[in-house]
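Re: your question about 2TM domain-containing protein

S., sorry for the slow reply, the queue was backed up all week. Below is exactly what I fed in.
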Amino acid sequence: MKRKSIIVLLWVAIGTALFFFLFFTEDKTIDNFMLSFLISSLYSFVLGIGNGVINDYLNKKIPWSQATTRRAIISVVSILIANIILVYVCNYINFVIFQKAATSEEFFSGKYNATNWFMVNIALLISAFLHARGFMEELKKTSKKEVVEQKLIAKSANAQFETLKNQLDPHFLFNSLNVLSSLIDENPKQAQKFTSSMSKIYRYVLEQKDKELVTVEDEIEFAKTYCELLKTRFEDSVDFVFDVRKEDYRKYVVPLSLQLLLENCIKHNFATSSKPLLIRIFSENDDLCIENNLQVREQIKESAGIGLANIVQRYSLLTKRNVFIEKSEDYFKVKLPVLSDKPNDVSIKPEDHDKAYKKAQKRVKEIKGFYANLTSYCIIIPFLIFINLYTQNNYHWFWWPMLGWGVGVASHAFQVFGVGEPWKERKIQEIMNKQKNKDNGNF
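Result:
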């Protein structure tokens, strides 16, 4: 146990000793106070340290955050068994050894059953409160840890995504200038036309580079414009075929993915009038495919692979669906997943912040209300038991408020932590997530 917990137990022992010494001890002497303090310390430290050791051990072996239900069951069983044993040990030491009020035979004969049962109930109530407090502390730590981890993941993913998108500008500009440089010598008029068209294309690049996803329709229109520029340079050496389903036009792909793949087709394959390079862009199942006949060009310098790697990494940040690459002796094909919605396009409005804040406030108020109820129960019920046993031993009326209020506390606990509105919200969210995953799997 921590040093702070030991100090708390010491103060509890001192407070309990003073209480019983001042109100229930007729002969107020130093010896009686020391005996009262010794007995209070016995119960405080044995019960406190015993429950603390059990709680610490269970926290290491079965944390609340990993197996809540299993931990709750094991906690109930362990504290029930441990507190019965600890209370009997404390009572035996108190009545038989310290006060010498009974012999061992009398203690185990049943004479002290009521006292033992009374102390067991008090110990269980206090232990339940301490374990509940431990659960809340663990819950807070886990929640904070998850929030920090999610923020770090979000920042890392965002930084990685921005880095990937920033590769597009120099990559596109470098390849376009190469084409323009070739055209200036071969066909100045076409070079001028190419420059005008390139400015339009680059405007699209600047408009789309900050977006995570764009519609298939926008990407196809851009690709057609880019293909016209390639056709200007290569003429009959390159042919393009577009066969994309109209129903796919309103779906989404990664921006500039087609342009990068078209560049790869030109870069890695030779194209002549006698052996033209045929590039097809078409729909296949739930993918947008870019396929070209394989006419591999000998590479003087090994390719850096920026274009295709860029697309693969950007898709990995947006969806679990993969980019597939097929290669045979005759063709090379890349399959881009077509997404029905924008997974990461989440905009939080100010009113949503207010709703979330009010919801969080309500949740905190519910939890505080439950622990106020539990604390009152742990304080008042032992007091009622003490009054009942002190004033009237024949009729134990304390069972009625203890059981009635106990059922209320248990119901309150289930409502706050398990079977109330939060449970309904969790089930609704769980069903929505399953449906969303199912929809994603049916793209």
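The longest strand covers residues 277-284. The mean pLDDT is 76.

Happy to talk it through on Thursday.
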